[in-house]
Design brief:
By secondary structure, this protein is an alpha+beta fold. The protein has three domains: 88 residues, Pseudouridine synthase; 120 residues, 2-Layer Sandwich (Pseudouridine synthase); 64 residues, Roll (Archaeosine Trna-guanine Transglycosylase, Chain: A, domain 4). Helices cover 17% and strands 32% of the residues. The protein is built from six helices and 16 strands. Strands 1, 2, 3, 4, 5, 8, 9, 10 and 11 form a nine-stranded mixed beta sheet that branches. Strands 12-14-15-16-13 form a five-stranded mixed beta sheet, with helices on one face. A two-stranded antiparallel sheet has the order 6-7. The longest helix has 12 residues. About 3% of the residues have low confidence.
Length: 299
């Protein structure tokens, strides 16, 4: 089963939990995700199944979009609502303009410290494991980019936001740093991911939708019964030009052979299809119009 499935992750589950549940539902052992979401967060979690797991390498630096809520008045040790207060609580009475003015320095390329309770590794050990044991955690700042940041619905203590950020950006750190800048403390109260590059919330499906697919007589699921929930292959990696290969080229590509694609003499990478739905390979231009498969998805 080779496919891309966009799950609307519910709150309270880890990304690994979702992957494990989808493996069980669809009966496919090879399932991976394209970007972790914290347990508290909801929204877009793209999954790649079967040989499509080989596409993960093209999403390492995928931009993401979020909607969320920041609460001011106290910080937490995890930088979100699931953590313990990191100091005394204060009364916040902020205006939207105050929040916008304070946030201006966080837009653009910035050096951001990850939360202590995060998956960042120190000596091969995730920082959150050390933090939970009370051991010292020293994380280095990382260059990230907050491309867009919009605030709305401020009631003095909470504010809603929309953000477009580069891969590796922590919205928990943004909430924490903004609260610190305002002198009141702050933490992330809610977060929903609305897009991972080309994958959007409108294309997502709940785990309940997956589980409602009809079983066969032996209580196993038909592979084809999920086709209407899988993303059409032509919508994957749209930044790469698409070509429908001739039968002769298809045979060569299936065996890793190079083919000539004259119409794409300037494209570094192309998507090669056999027919309308079968994504055969991602091919790399090696010279002139000669393309070599970089990833073969159909043997």
């Amino acid at each position: 089963m080779d496919a891309v499935l966009i799950v609307d992750k519910p709150a309270g589950m880890t990304s690994h939990d979702v992957v494990a549940r989808v493996r069980r539902i669809v009966g496919e052992k090879s399932v991976g995700h394209l970007g972790t979401l914290d347990p508290m967060a909801t929204g877009v979690l793209p999954l790649v199944l079967g040989r499509f797991t080989r596409l993960a390498q093209f999403y390492n630096d995928a931009d993401k979009r979020y909607e969320g809520t920041i609460r001011f008045g106290w910080a937490t040790d995890t930088y979100d609502a699931e953590g313990q207060p990191a100091g005394p609580k204060q009364t916040a009475d902020l205006s939207l303009q105050q929040v916008q003015d304070a946030a201006a320095e966080f837009v653009g390329e910035i050096a951001q410290y990850p939360p202590l309770f995060s998956a960042k590794k120190i000596g091969g050990i995730p920082a959150h494991r050390l933090a939970r044991k009370g051991q010292p955690v020293e994380l280095k700042p990382k260059q990230v980019e907050i491309k867009e940041l919009e605030f709305y619905n401020c009631d003095g203590q909470t504010v809603c936001f929309r953000a477009w950020v580069s891969s590796g950006t922590y919205l928990r750190s943004l909430a924490h740093d903004l609260g610190k800048k305002l002198g009141l403390g702050g933490h992330l109260a809610a977060l929903k991911r609305t897009a991972v590059r080309e994958f959007t919330i409108d294309e997502s499906h709940s785990l309940e939708q997956l589980e409602q697919k009809p079983p066969t007589s032996d209580n196993r699921y038909y592979v084809n019964s999920f086709d209407d929930l899988f993303l059409h292959p032509r919508l994957v990696l749209p930044e790469f030009p698409a070509v429908t290969a001739t039968p002769e080229s298809v045979a060569k590509i299936r065996h890793g052979g190079a083919v000539n694609l004259p119409e794409f003499s300037k494209a570094p990478l192309v998507r090669v299809f056999a027919g309308q739905r079968e994504l055969l390979a991602i091919a790399r231009r090696v010279a002139g119009t000669l393309f070599q498969p970089k990833v073969v998805l159909q043997g």
